[in-house]
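We give its fold:
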Amino acid sequence: MWILAIVLFSVVVALLSYMDMRKPKNYPPGPKWLPILGSALTVSSLRKQTGYLYRATICLAESYGPIVGLKVGKDRQVVCCGYNAIKEMLTKEEFDGRPQGPFYETRTWGTRRGLLLTDEEFWVEQRRFVLRHLREFGFGKRTMAELVQEEAVQLVEDFKEKIKKSKDGKGEIMEMRDAFSVGVLNTLWSMMASKRYNSEDKELKDLQALLTELFANIDMVGALFSQFPFLRYIAPEASGYKTFVNIHQQVWKFLRAELDSHKDTFILNQPRDLMDVYLQMLHSDDKKESYSESQLLAICMDMFMAGSETTSKSLGFGFLYLLLNPEVQKKAQEEIDRVVGRDRLPTLNDRPNMPYLEALVLESVRVFMGRTFSIPHRALKDTTLQGYHIPKDTMVIANFAALLNDDDVWDHPDRFCPDRFIGCDGKLIVPDEYLPFGYGKHRCMGQTLARSNIFLFSACLLQNFDFSVPAGQAPPSTLGVDGVTPSPGEFSAYVSLRS
């Protein structure tokens, strides 16, 4: 009898293994699938060889074509590496879903909340509300320009104060990777919560250090504990689950304190910011089911984590490359001197007359986003992509690295060259393939604020300071650190007052 049981068990295991290895008919080409693991070993090996997940999938695209079909643990994944595939993916309604699973739900109390990782009617309703009311507090308007200007002025003053305290009062070696994070956050948080932070705020600095650690240890496509859910229970530390939960709990605690403070001072019909407007909705008789305090906290977390992270890292990469390309720095400064002079700081009103600075912004974003993936989408039903069958609930991701570093589109994409965005007539040109902020309905809602921040922070700093590699130090590496949002490694610059 026991022999029969063993045989039956073996048959069942073999059948399940076969089914787990079997790809859907006309699924995009890719490496073979192993039972349970899928193509995880292949992807992991290529990532180890190349140093980055985005490069690993580009290598696969070179073998299988611009659309690569994968399976990592329980997740079916399709990675798009070509312009046509990416544009179709970002505009096709069937791909408007967001992934499901522990990684995407644990971050917001066991259910999907917020704006980044929600979909369908819930997402439409919440995004519309947030955009409408952020505009009331300056999003995309003149008051937003004033907020950005205020932070740019403060950044210049902070740099000058550090130089003033230096030995010779002319220059100081400064850490640059995180130099912009607080200023960038303040431009957004002033609209969200009527609050700005000091660059020396210990609680905020500790929290941002935790976020840097988190983003370096997870990927946009998930984490081990999400792709292999059983690891949450048998290996919570090794799978990253424990760290993921602990860091998010500290973020929740930080945001909860801000929300409680708002609730204590909230006055009905006298909103100061988005948080007050949302609280007012919660007091309304017309409140819909999608509105809740947990949703408000999740929106704040999305804004806090994603809204500032990508912009500050674009600035970090931009100034890293400015150190390594002094001729670009000098050309930008010449335009600033010609258009603005030295008697006042640049403003956003100067942008139409400063195409090279605008090009520098575009290039800073390109070298950052050229290391990234899009936020994953999910097929809401069985559909097709570039003629391939995509089953319902498959995760679909755009590899922006393949698009923004394509040799067929960009001349020497490995170089930092703002001139690639300047036409023969001296005016700004933007190729169709430049899609770092996405496309279609899911286009980044913070694009205007991000580009304004990068422009004004860069222009104000370059007007007042020269940035160079510190004497005796090797030029910093451009390799950066892989993660959900790649980061430049820690690097320093000798910052001196312009003569």
User: Anything to note?
Assistant: The chain has 18 helices and nine strands. The CA atoms of residues 172 and 207 lie 26 Å apart. The two ends are 92 Å apart (CA to CA).
